Amino acid sequence: MAQHAVGLAADLPVGSMKAFRAGQERVVVYHLKGGFYATQAQCTHTFGPLARGEIVDGCQVRCPLHRARFDIATGQVVEWANFPPGIQLLDALRGERALRTYPVKVKDGKIMVTT
Fold first, then answer.
1. Could you say which of 25, 36, 42, 86 has the lowest number of CB atoms within 10 Å?
2. pTM of this prediction?
3. In CATH, what class is 3-114?
4. Which run of H or of E encompasses 37?
5. What does each C-alpha distance from 99 to 9, 20, 50, 104, 110 come to in angstroms?
């Protein structure tokens, strides 16, 4: 496991998220009221770009493609893909899978992600 400086904490205000590369991994870093968090960059449903989604309920990320929602801190599925109507047929083939999460620290003003 290695720590990677991905950006400056001051550039990511509370309530925002941004995609970064941390070593060989593509991640999304979120700045929530409780601190900084990181998940894999792609949704586990059909690999939608989570950085283009939105933070909902202050602690979840919703994928922009099929509206799957995940707990940002744990990566657990809150609601599996449900849009557009009929996507449930694909859901039968692509069972629910949590997001990978990564430890995040802020050191000397830099966001450090461990992969």
1. 86
2. 0.91
3. mainly beta
4. strand 35-40
5. 23, 16, 11, 15, 24
**What is the predicted pLDDT for the residue at 45?**
85
Cα distance between residue 43 and residue 63, in whole Å: 6
Query: Residue 99 has which token pair?
Result: 């997001």
In the chain, where does DSSP find H-type helix? 88-93
Please choose, from the candidates 52, 44, 51, the residue with its C-alpha nearest in 3D space to the C-alpha of residue 90.
44
Find the mean pLDDT for residues 82-102.
76
d(CA 18, CA 12): 8
pLDDT digits (tens, 9 = 90+) for 53-87: 999 999 999 999 888 999 999 999 999 887 766 66
**Secondary structure letter of residue 94 according to DSSP:** S
Residue 94 tokens, joined: 């692509």
| CA dihedral of residues 91, 16, 99, 110 (deg, nearest 10) | 160
Cα–Cα distance list, 107 to 10, 95, 99 (Å): 12, 37, 25
